[in-house]
Specification:
Layout: H1 2-54, H2 58-72, E1 76-88, H3 94-107, E2 112-117, E3 121-130, E4 135-145, E5 150-161, H4 165-182, E6 188-197, H5 204-215, E7 218-225, E8 229-236, E9 252-258, E10 265-271
Antiparallel strand pairs: 1-5, 1-6, 2-3, 3-4, 4-5, 6-10, 7-8, 8-9, 9-10
Length: 278
């Protein structure tokens, strides 16, 4: 009896240990799957963050798209510009203005500076010309003031000449890198390109305007037509930077001007607006 009872006890213990072993194995597998899922999820998140970091800024790609249209339509690129603009709210007196100028001089040390402090305006302008890239660079801190209020803003501008995509890409990358050096806050960014046709345009200015609108998949919002001049404000779904108008939202402007019969025609395209005189 004792031996039989002992054997049954040993069998029960052995069975219990076997069940515990299976449960431990099952739990370990679940934990393993859990950690694998966590690692994969983390990898996906980090991968997405890296992908977003590597994606070019949406506004920057617009100047590339404008250049592609110019090349497709045989428009000679003369110059192109990128602007970054933001308000500065912390400047309330001359001391704060001078402190901000010193910070900019430290962060953008390659610029040559000129500071003007007048009764109704304080202005600091930093400039640089890159011989290798054929690029002009200007950073302005401007504070206008009255007895009751002060308004300050930063304007950073780069200008490239002609169009060689590798050079342009480097200028664009430098532009955004410098924006980060200037301020970690977001800038409003504008893109603008100027070119010309050497030969007489077939179909006139309006026909060329329609060709450009089609190339940008854009719809007219406002338009001015004259014999030697056309100006169009339009909207395209391709670009996110939008300005409201009384006629509807817009994010593209096109300007064409010809000097006379047989003369070359100047073409300017900007987003969300043209930022040069034409």
């Amino acid at each position: 009896m004792w031996n039989g009872h002992n054997e049954r006890g040993n069998g029960f213990i052995s069975s219990t240990k076997s069940i515990e072993k299976k449960w431990k194995l099952y739990i370990n597998r679940l934990l393993g799957l859990f950690f694998i899922c966590v690692i994969c999820f983390t990898g996906v998140i980090l991968g997405n963050e890296v992908s977003r970091a590597q994606l070019p800024n949406d506004i920057s790609t617009e100047i590339l798209e404008i250049a592609e249209v110019f090349q497709e339509e045989k428009i000679n690129v003369q110059e192109w510009k990128l602007y970054g603009r933001k308000n500065v709210y912390k400047i309330r007196d001359l001391v704060a203005f001078q402190k901000e100028v010193n910070r900019l001089k430290q962060n953008m040390g390659h610029l040559s500076w000129n500071v003007i402090e007048e009764e109704d305006q304080w202005k600091a302008v930093g400039t640089h010309y890159n011989d290798l890239l054929k690029q002009e660079e200007t950073l302005q801190l401007i504070t206008t003031h009255t007895n009751s209020s002060k308004t300050s803003y930063l304007l950073y501008e780069v200008t490239g000449y002609g169009w060689e995509k590798p050079v342009a890409t480097e200028i664009i990358n430098n532009f955004h890198s410098n924006l980060t050096n200037i301020s970690h806050e977001d800038f409003e960014i504008f893109s603008c390109m100027t070119g010309d046709f050497n030969d007489k345009i077939e179909g006139g200015l309006q026909n060329t305007t329609n060709i450009l609108l089609e190339a940008f998949s854009a719809q007219v919002v406002e338009e001015i037509q004259e014999d030697t001049f056309v100006s169009v404000s339009a909207y395209t779904d391709a670009w996110n930077n939008v300005l409201p108008t009384h006629q509807g939202k817009m994010n593209l402007q096109i300007g064409l001007r010809t000097q006379g019969m047989g003369d070359k025609t100047t073409v300017i395209v900007g987003t969300p607006i043209i930022t040069v005189e034409y």
